[in-house]
Amino acid sequence: MTQAIGVFDSGVGGLTVVRELRQRFPHEEIHYLGDTARVPYGTKSPRTVERYALTCQEFLLEKRVKLVMVACNTASANALPALQERAEVPVIGAVHPGALAALEATRSGHIAVLGTLGTVRSGAYEAAICERDPKASVVTRACPLFVPLAEEGWGETDIAKLTARRYLSELFQADGHVDTIVLGCTHYPLLRDVVAEVCEELCSAPVRIVDSAAAMVSQASLHLGAEETPLKRPAGALRCSVTDASRMEELAPRFLGETLDSLELVDL
Amino acid sequence: MTQAIGVFDSGVGGLTVVRELRQRFPHEEIHYLGDTARVPYGTKSPRTVERYALTCQEFLLEKRVKLVMVACNTASANALPALQERAEVPVIGAVHPGALAALEATRSGHIAVLGTLGTVRSGAYEAAICERDPKASVVTRACPLFVPLAEEGWGETDIAKLTARRYLSELFQADGHVDTIVLGCTHYPLLRDVVAEVCEELCSAPVRIVDSAAAMVSQASLHLGAEETPLKRPAGALRCSVTDASRMEELAPRFLGETLDSLELVDL
Question: Same structural domain for residues B142 and B159?
Answer without folding.
Answer: yes
